[in-house]
Amino acid sequence: MEIKVNSQSKLNWKGEALALGFFTRDTITLEGELADLDQRLDGVLSELIAETEFKGKPDTTLVARVGGKNPIRKVIITGLGKEEEVSVDTFRKAAASIARVANQARVKHLGICLPHPQYDDNTLAQVIAEGVILASHQDNRFKSEVQDRPVTLETVELLESNAKEEAIERAKIICDGVIFARELVNAPANVINPVTLAETVKSLAQQYGLQLTILEREDCERLGMGAFLGVAKASDLPPKFIHLVYKPETEAKRKLAFVGKGLTFDSGGLNLKGPGSSIETMKMDMGGAAAIFGAAKAIAQLKPPVEVHFISAVTENMISGRAMHPGDILTASNGKTIEVNNTDAEGRLTLADALVYADKLGVDAIVDLATLTGACIIALGNDIAGLWTKNEQLANELKTAAAAAGEKIWQMPLEEKYFEQMKSTIADMKNTGPRAGGSITAALFLQQFVKDTPWAHLDIAGPVWAEKPTSLYNEGGTGFGVRTLVNWVLNSQ
Ligand code: BES
Ligand code: MN
Ligand code: ZN
To answer: CATH: 2.30.29.220, 3.40.50.300, 3.30.559.10, 3.40.630.10. Which one for 172-491?
Structure first.
């Protein structure tokens, strides 16, 4: 699919389908150029608006056929919502919705023209291109037959825009990272396992000339990563501790580390997941790792002057005669001891050693992303990630990056008093507290493994996986986190 910028007016554009956006109004009236356009299209636009009682509400996208010898064959109209509530994501979602309707209507050549008094052409072009690309992504890798709802779009033109080519290029690169993450999450545990994930990251490193260190089990033993290795014990597959580095050609303005939870499958271990615990979707428990490596793919192409480390302790949480037992005491690489009172709270164990490792790199900030707790989904629902940090500047930077990305995050309290509930009588701490405040105690557990580096934790258990499609993604992996991380790195220059 080719996406182009075209400064031409919608009045003169010739192509298969023209898409227009409208802010919410009680009655939509066509004025000025839109009235001219309507006239040229023999009133199809005003008829479509009247017949469907279109009021420009969000998530309303309609298509109509234009008759006769008109240079345009179809018009698509989409609702942008209330003008006073507009954000860049309004346009990303609108473009996604337009692209979906266009593909359903078998459109190959599409022109998009959205009113945008609030934003400059480059910002707008980037988010529109992101919307179109992300909405047109279908993961058909595991289907044996050709789909009956294929993506038909071949050429998309952004009309009345003077955006630079770079804006479209940036969108393509970011979406490349998002799609990489989606496909990693969608790949089942018999395809993406610790060995194949490490191989995938190795190809990524080779493709973009990134530094890569993969620590094998013995290396991790030497570093005393008892928490990570405890989780890895039952698997027939070897654990892989992945450390990928992007270094800019010029001096780094900032050094950052991303840590992603990398459970290629989470059975729960001997505290085996029961009915209703989503065991069948636990291939997505490497969504944090997918997000950081997706971000790596984009950052390696965007080449910002920031050094970024991408770290994941990758394994599966399985059951076998070698499995860690509930009650086992593990020693993490910072010397702290953990009584494993629940083997299903495994993510924090793998992250503990990954955070200790990241903390030693001397970076300016660490951000971890993890499908850590069902409790976070109970607290914030499926669409919003939880954010925990003591560092308000970091919190604000991440909130800004997430807002521009159209990814929802909500800051939660690091309520230190709750850590008392994690105290163990026999070891330094347990790995699980009571049900109440489960996502907070999980964050407090992670905090034990970071010394002085500014650190933030994102619990992405909800938004990494979609049971229902939206305009931007289908069911399955959403690629959540990639756009926020990339924006944050780009803003860190
Ligand atoms: N990977 C799960 C969390 C999860 C649950 C992610 C549902 C996505 C959807 C995590 O390892 C887990 O099992 N957490 C337990 C923790 C509990 C044992 C303290 C949970 O949330 O139930
Ligand atoms: Mn678990
Ligand atoms: Zn898990």
So the answer is: 3.40.630.10
